[in-house]
Amino acid sequence: MPLYLSRFSYTPETWGRLINNPEDRRKAAQAYIESVGGKLHGFWYAFGSHDGYNLWEAPDNVSMAAVALAISGGGALSTFETTVLMSVEETMEALQKAGEIRYRPPGS
Length: 108
Known about the structure:
Elements: E1 3-10, H1 12-20, H2 26-34, E2 39-45, E3 52-57, H3 61-72, E4 77-85, H4 88-99
Antiparallel strand pairs: 1-3, 1-4, 2-3
Pfam families: GYD
Protein name: GYD domain-containing protein
């Protein structure tokens, strides 16, 4: 199954609710991804441009997109970005296919 890396940031209101009522959000994230047949591999909080990171496994892009849309639509996050991760083997295959494409720069 494909792997996905998500970066998220909470709204100030969400941080306020968590301060008043601390909650382990890994359980919620795990339930969301398992509802589409996937698995949560990791959940981390961080300093920096994003408040946290998730590593997910999902059956396909549509399933992961459904989870991302459901979470984003909930209003607790100010940002939610997901990146599809590719294995080295997939990248090698893409490199081989790229070598077969006859790219022509614009205007040439």
